[in-house]
Amino acid sequence: MNQRTVALIIVGAIVLxxxxxxxxxxxxxxxxxxxxxxxxxxxxxxxxxxxxMDELHDSYRLETxxxxxxxxxxxxxxxxxxLKASIENGALTVVVPKDVAVQAHAEVGDGALSILGxxxxxxxxxxxxxxxxxxxxxxxxSLDLSAGTGVITVVRAE
Length: 158
Known about the structure:
It is built from one helix and six strands, in the order H-E-E-E-E-E-E. By secondary structure, it is an alpha/beta fold.
């Protein structure tokens, strides 16, 4: 064999390797997307944005996908408003208004959580958070959040 034949064999082997790697990557990505789809094949992405207390539910739940509960337009009454939200697999985001004191309890089986900028990752996460002056605030929001596998994020509206 001459050098040209050896070079062609090496290039062919590299192309074959890259082709197999691309197929495997496609299967992995397809599996992840499949895990985030419902039975009809549509990705479950849901945003709830209540504008009044009448529209606000006591709890929000999603099996798999992405759930955002955006409360930035809410006018909360004086006293404490309780809210539960959960997701089995995926991302849960809660957007809270600027003028409301927040208390949160969050649990994540495996993943990450971030409550108003303070975060952690790992397994069996259990976190309590209370904004400064919560007990003296006239408008308070108490959150009870959970995720099996995924991410919980609580952010303040801008």
